[in-house]
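Sequence in, structure out. Go.
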Amino acid sequence: MQLLYLTDPHTQVRRKDEHLEVWEGESRKANVPLQSLERIVVFGSVPFTSQALALALDKGIDVSFLSGHGKYRGSLLAAQSKNVFLRLAQCERFRHGGFRLAFCRAVVTAKILAQQRVLTRYARSQRAELESRALEELARLLGQVAEAGTPEGCQGLEGQAAAVYFEQFRHMLTALEFPGRRQRPSTDPANALLSLGYVMLGNEIASLLEALGLDPAVGFLHGLRYGRQSLALDLVEPFRQPVIDRLTLRLLNLKQFTPKDFEGGEKGLRLVPEALKRYLEEYERHLRSSSEGEGSPSWRERLKQQAEAVRAMVMNDRVEPLWVWDG
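Output:
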């Protein structure tokens, strides 16, 4: 999957025959081949001509729009899958309490396992001084997942595990103070990068689900909420820690990003334009890297495999364990 990120509000995207061009005033900055391009991600206000948008959609390229802070605004989607039977099956599985509960248990199990493995790896390789009770508490919560009787019960265990995990995040983050997980607004660099990364990952998974014919809005753990990509959020859960958290820790602990790279205040921090470009480069490099060492699928390939596995679960009416990083 090839992605194009657009961040400069002084540029415009135009159509030239069967390809796209990025212009700044009267100067052409880039020629964009479309053969392997699957998605365009726009930060802030980057204008497109109607001809450019039409060409992207005709070529099956989705266009996602985010604010300058990285908040998801919406997407223009190419023609949706014609597999209406898959979407009907997805709605039936949502209404079927047994399938939904089994899926919720699978998601929360995979997420807690990922949290355990990230903490264990940092304690071993980075000599992070984690509290000994943290892994014990995560193990206790993990043992309760199979006994959860409702999706809400699964959500409660997921929330408790997240609280335990983020208590230890400050020990792994050695370069900066971490005030705890704060989403809205993110008033410190670590939370700002975490939130941005989670949005990016959720967008990516939503596009995969759309391409496979699933409805990203019909989730099982996160349920239904107007305007929310709940199924995409379900699939993000097991990937948050091994993908985004590890990337955030590396970028901050190695001081590739410092407080000087952020702007804003109490209403929320965001990366300055130059730093955002560097972050997107690092994000892309990370998503294309091997998930479990040389020869293993990349993180982006893992995301696709997981989305395909969920499609099979929905069609076969059978929940299987989700993939978990073996770090």
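Check: The radius of gyration is 20 Å. The chain is about 50% helix and 15% strand.
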